[in-house]
Amino acid sequence: MYRSGFEFRRHFSHGLFPLFGITRREWLLSAGCISLAACARRVGSGFNGYALVATSGEHSVAIADLSNFRLLREVPLGGSPVSIRAGIESNYVLTPSTGSVHAIGPELKCTASRKLSDELCAIDLARGVNRLFTLAAAGQLIEVDPRTLAPKHRWKLAAEPAGLAVAADGSVAVSNRKTGSIEFFRAGDAQPARTNLGGAIGEIAFRKDGKLLLVANYHEQAITALDIPSLQVVAHLPLAMQPENFCFNSDGGQLFVTGPGMDGIAIAFPYLPFEIEQTVLAGRDPGAMACSENPAYLLVASASGSDVFILNIEDRKVLGIVEVGQKPSFITVTPDSQYALVLNESSGDMAVIRIPSIQQRLGNPATMRGKSAAALFTMLPVGSKPVHAVVIPKPA
Fold first, then answer.
1. 3-state SS string for the chain
2. Once rounded to an integer, what is the mean pLDDT over residues 148-164?
């Protein structure tokens, strides 16, 4: 009757709850218990922490215990969350349509909510200096008090904002993606620096040392590097694909780029010599990415498919492909590099890949049959349209 577990789960979750007299939320919680029982039979001790998952279709954040891969609870927010940032004392969630920022404290409950504008479009945090920023669609950069969520300062922007990047020292870059304008704000400066790249741009990101701003230059299909704080162009690297997704490796010394136009990954060095080292094939329609530190692997989700492509960063060798779920749109890795968590936006679950199993299978040619270099560890239902997540350790 059902060709796959994913097909059954979709049918069940959308049409059969009333027949069993349970709600979808109750089913998710019970399914988490089933996943726990399954995990008890598998190798792996879990990570001593939690995953906070923004489930935009549920208007909530799902809390998963990663020590036993069990869904603990859902934290309702009253709006669709799209982004979470892990802070020092709290974790911060953005619900753009309500114009609000929410704080989830160590007790894993919503401790504060604050409406800052009619609509917000981005949030970011300089964790080292504990400075929290958000963008109002009406044209404001807002610094938010991390404890009270009250606005500390508002800056009027020259153009409608879309992209936000915050450096480790609390410096901020804001972009308008349609026109290519960028504004740079730094503490102590009377006026922001401004520049315009003359056409559509995408993601912006600071290099780890904060001395360059890297821009996904759509209209020239390139990475453009801007000097900080002058915003002068210092490098321009043409690409074989539209630079839609950025991902740095653990030390920030390599930048991986994916996007429409090629089923591949561009590998760039953001330090001297600033260059595209090579472009490698990466499955079908590569999209969201994440890196583990040890071993140094790059995991790449298929934007329109159901699998994750795995590349060894050190030797650029392809390790394999893991089937995960429908439309994997976000990946994060636990701090100990033991588990990769893949959010499947269409199937409403989180796939867990146990990274050490990749190494074990590489050492045994008999296990390398087929296209997968790693077995899927478990699947955990988390709610409708999971789009973003952070991993936090349990309090000592």
1. CCCCHHHHHHHHHHHCHHHHCCCHHHHHHHHHHHHHHHHCCCCCCCCCEEEEEEECCCCEEEEEECCCCEEEEEEECCCCCCEEEECCCCEEEEEHHHCEEEEECCCCCEEEEEECCCCEEEEEEECCCCEEEEEECCCEEEEECCCCCCEEEEEECCCCCCEEEECCCCCEEEEECCCCEEEEECCCCCCCEEEECCCCEEEEEECCCCCEEEEEECCCCEEEEEECCCCCEEEEEECCCCCCEEEECCCCCCEEEECCCCCEEEEEECCCCCEEEEEEECCCCEEEEEECCCCCEEEEEECCCCEEEEEECCCCCEEEEEECCCCEEEEEECCCCCEEEEEECCCCEEEEEECHHHHHHHCCHHHCCCCCCCCEEEEEECCCCEEEEEEEECCC
2. 95
Q: Dihedral (C-alpha) 74, 78, 79, 82: value to the nearest 10 degrees?
A: -30
User: Are 298 and 282 spatial neighbours (Cβ–Cβ below 8 Å)?
Assistant: no
Which band of pLDDT confidence, cut at 50, 70 and 90, is reported for residue 362? low
Residue 328 has pLDDT above 70, yes or no: yes
User: Which residue from 65, 128, 120 is spatially nearest to 93, judged by alpha carbons?
Assistant: 120
Q: What is the arithmetic mean of pLDDT over 46-55? A: 97
Encode pLDDT of 4-25 as tens digits: 333 333 333 333 333 334 444 4
State phi, psi for 85 to the nearest 5 degrees: -125, 135
- Predicted TM-score of the model (pTM): 0.86
pLDDT tens for 232-288 read 999 999 999 999 999 999 999 999 999 999 999 999 999 988 999 999 988 889 999
Region of poorest pLDDT, from 32-41, 108-117, 185-194? 32-41
